[in-house]
Amino acid sequence: MTDFIKRTFTLSVAMPVLIFGIFSAGLSGCSFEEGDDLDQYMRDATKDVKPRVKPLPEVQPYMALQYNADGALVDPFRARKAVNKTSVLQPNLNRPKEPMEAYPLESLKYVGLLSKSKLTYALLKTPDETIQQVKLGNYVGQNFGKVTQITDGEVLLTEIVQDDLTGEWVERMSNLVLQED
Predict the structure, then answer these.
(1) pTM above 0.70, yes or no
(2) Alpha-carbon gap, residue 132 to 140, rounded angstroms
(3) 44 by DSSP, 3-state: which?
(4) Residue 117: its pLDDT value, please?
(5) Which of 112, 142, 168, 173 is 20 to 30 A off residue 106, Cα-Cα?
(6) Of 102, 158, 88, the residue nearest 130 (C-alpha)
(7) What is the mean pLDDT of residues 52-71?
(8) Which CATH number fits domain 99-177: 2.30.30.830, 1.25.40.180, 1.20.210.10, 3.50.50.60?
């Protein structure tokens, strides 16, 4: 029985070595550098080929659209022209700001009218849901808007803004219409 195990073990070890040797000999024949017509064809095939790459498209310049909430098309990055210091309409930049000048005019709502004695007050609702009183002569909004008239239906303001073309200060009429909830 031991003789049978020795022969089986010898065959099981010798057989893979023999197969590996035959396979290695077969592959060594393929390792020559010259003489393979496929390699020669691959070298010659790339000599006649000219690449056909389309040119890149021309880069178009970026054209930004100008936007202004008032509808005027103005470049916000263009320097404004020098302002005439002797202009009558130039706002007083040294006066203390009133509380209602902290809010943009578009964010305020006219919600009511209050009269005491001979004074009339407009009740304005701010974005933080508080009610503020303003009277004639008070400043409202961020464009130096001065309250000029208070009626049952609206509050009229005269704002002083810079003209985008000339840089001069000009008056502009604005209003807040009564909002009924």
Answers:
(1) no
(2) 11
(3) helix
(4) 84
(5) 168
(6) 102
(7) 75
(8) 2.30.30.830
